[in-house]
TrEMBL record:
Name of the protein described by the UniProt record: Uncharacterized protein
A GO term for molecular function: microtubule binding
Positions of ARM repeats: 124-166
Residue stretches spanning the membrane: none
Alphabetical list of InterPro entries matching this protein: ARM-like (IPR011989), ARM-type_fold (IPR016024), Armadillo (IPR000225), HEAT (IPR000357)
UniProt GO BP: cilium movement
Keyword Protein biosynthesis in annotation: no
A cellular component term, taken from the record's GO annotations: microtubule cytoskeleton
Transport keyword on record: no
Database matches in Pfam families: Arm (PF00514), HEAT (PF02985)
Keywords: Repeat
Length: 417
């Protein structure tokens, strides 16, 4: 074929490459999205997904993903322009670079709302994404796991669809892979599935996830530790049996060490996991205390600030509510002081309410408990919070209940012969 004939095709190809790469680069910045949308970028990118040049296909998918990520309107345009079936059909046929880009688009569409996530499911994406979890390339697995995570997070029905597609056993395999980013995303996907219901959490436990999650608690990566602790919390929160399943994989005492982690997010996630176990039963609360958790939680509340204190505060309340021996253990561990401090000093009303509730749970068992509260001057502070005009109705209610719980014992003792 003569050079004269080939030249216009080469020029056309170079122009397509330059266009799609430039759009993908511009789409990185949110301030460019509106201008790109006004220029009709969606209709120009769509045919490039079927381009004969693989690099152009990949760049077109990447650009679409970035546009959908920053704009719900453009994510809806991806759906309305029937681009999803095109992406899904290509997922099983194209190379690993395209698969990553296509999974990225699906993730960016699904993240905005349950309606858009359902559109992704209805396009047949789940089966294709699950197949990607079986790919050799870890980056393809990671992209697929991330898309599944964003689908599952919205509703129990969407999470169930992910489970029904067979994703859970493969996600459990993914958390065993050596790549930290793949572990992180897969643990996050399992967490999003678990959070909705006991049945979904049981699916994850039945797939054998718990021991592998437990083994990752001491990992060096902060984001992975956060995902793992929240996943364990999302399993434990539903039922006593599920909480016991988490305890049985030896998360204690290593999760207590995470309360001293250098990353504040890890510390909060660990405290959240302990809270979800502590609330389930008296036996589990006793087991937590035997592991030395009370002192660790008290230290955590002392060191944390703001709403990060909340899971620790509630843990003490749940433990203290079960029986007087457990409550006395909290008092002996100097647990009253940080609860009182949070009641007085924290600006967040929900933290104050939780502190008042926990103090009531601990102080209402016996004369000894009530005396410990009185010696710490807790009743006067509860009264002050109750009378403060800016206190929320919930805070006033919790303060009043705690005050009655503590003072009732004192009144009964004084009135008895």
């Amino acid at each position: 074929m003569s050079r004269a004939v080939l030249q216009p095709f080469e020029v056309y190809q170079k122009a397509r490459v330059q266009f799609v790469q430039t759009v993908a680069e511009l789409a990185k910045r949110p301030q460019n999205i509106e201008a790109l949308q006004s220029a009709g970028v969606m209709s120009l990118l769509r045919p490039l997904l079927l381009d004969c040049v693989p690099s152009i296909q990949q760049s077109a998918a990447l650009a679409l993903g970035r546009l959908a990520k920053h704009s719900e309107d453009l994510a809806e345009a991806v759906v309305s322009n029937e681009i999803l079936p095109q992406l899904v059909s290509s997922l099983g046929e194209q190379n690993r670079f395209y698969k990553k880009a296509a999974a990225f688009v699906l993730r960016c569409v699904a993240k905005h709302s349950s309606t858009l996530a359902m559109a992704v499911v209805n396009s047949g994406a789940l089966e294709a994404l699950v197949q990607c979890l079986e790919e050799f390339d870890p980056s393809v697995k990671e992209a697929a796991a991330s898309a599944l995570r964003y689908i599952a997070k919205h509703t129990a029905d969407l999470a169930q669809a992910v489970v029904d597609a067979g994703a859970v056993p493969l996600l459990v395999l993914c958390i065993q892979e050596p790549e930290t980013t793949l572990k992180r995303v897969s643990a996050g996907a399992l967490s999003e599935i678990c959070k909705h219901s006991a049945e979904l959490a049981q699916n994850v436990v039945d797939a054998g996830a718990a021991p592998f999650l437990s083994a990752l608690i001491p990992h060096h990566d902060a984001e992975l530790k956060r995902s793992v602790c929240f996943c364990l919390a999302n399993i434990a929160k539903h039922t006593i049996d599920l909480a016991e399943a988490i305890v049985d994989v030896d998360i204690f005492p290593k999760i207590l060490y995470r309360l001293k982690d250098t990353d504040p997010g890890v510390r909060k996630a660990a405290a959240t996991c302990i809270r979800e176990i502590a609330r389930q039963s008296q036996d589990l609360a006793k087991m937590i205390c035997s592991a030395g958790a009370v002192v660790s939680i008290v230290d955590y509340i002392n060191e944390a600030k703001g709403d990060a204190r909340l899971p620790g505060i509630m843990t003490l309340g749940f433990i203290g509510a079960f029986d007087e021996a457990l409550a006395m253990g909290i008092i002996a561990a100097k647990g009253i002081a940080p609860l009182k401090d949070a009641l007085i000093k924290e600006p967040d009303q929900s933290v104050k309410s939780a502190s008042a509730w926990s103090l009531g749970m601990i102080g209402g068992h016996s004369a000894d408990h009530s005396r410990a509260m009185a010696e710490a001057d807790v009743p006067s502070h509860l009264l002050a919070v109750y009378k403060f005009p800016d206190s929320s109705e919930d805070l006033k209610k919790k303060s009043s209940q705690a005050l009655k719980s503590i003072l009732q014992i004192t009144i009964n003792l004084r009135s008895s012969p």
